[in-house]
Amino acid sequence: MARDDEPRRVEVGFNGGQAITLRLSSKAYDGFRKDVQRGGWAEVESDDGIVSVNLDAVVFVKLDTGEHRVGFSGL
Predict the structure, then answer these.
(1) Structural domain contains residue 28
(2) CB of 41 closer than 8 Å to CB of 55
(3) What is the CATH number of the domain that holds 47?
(4) d(C-alpha 13, C-alpha 15), whole Å
(5) Looking at the domain assignment, is residue 72 inside a domain?
(6) Backbone angles phi, psi at 48, to 5 degrees
(7) Mean pLDDT across 60-69
(8) 72, HSE (Cβ side, Cα atoms, 13 Å)
(9) Would the pTM of this model clear 0.85, i.e. be above it?
(10) What is the pLDDT of residues 40-54, one digit of tens each?
């Protein structure tokens, strides 16, 4: 499976400070970003199941870059 096809972790933050983490394919992520701009309710198909989201309450969407760093840098 190519890296682009692998599900990536997406954190979605809401008014009030709550957040959820979804694992989305690139296609699902692109569709979700477009839906967020439109607002309203949407069903998001993640690897963990289908999630209904009130897009009017979304305050941020954070895509995991996949660059995991552990330990001390520069050593």
Answers:
(1) yes
(2) yes
(3) 2.30.30
(4) 7
(5) no
(6) -95, -5
(7) 82
(8) 2
(9) no
(10) 999 999 998 999 999
Please list the alpha-helical segments (H only) found in the chain: 26-38
The residue among 42, 17, 21 whose CA lies nearest residue 32 is: 42
pLDDT tens track for 3-19: 567 899 999 999 999 99
- Confirm if 57 and 2 have CB atoms less than 8 A apart: no
Structural domains of the chain, count = 1
Does any domain span residue 69?
Answer: no
Q: Are 9 and 56 in contact (CB under 8 A)?
A: no
Does residue 63 have a pLDDT over 70? yes
What is the per-residue pLDDT for 1? 43
Contact 10, 23 (CB under 8 A): yes
Residue whose structure tokens are 């692998």: 6
Is residue 58 within 8 A of residue 12, CB to CB? The reply is: yes
Cα 50 to the center of its chain, rounded Å: 13
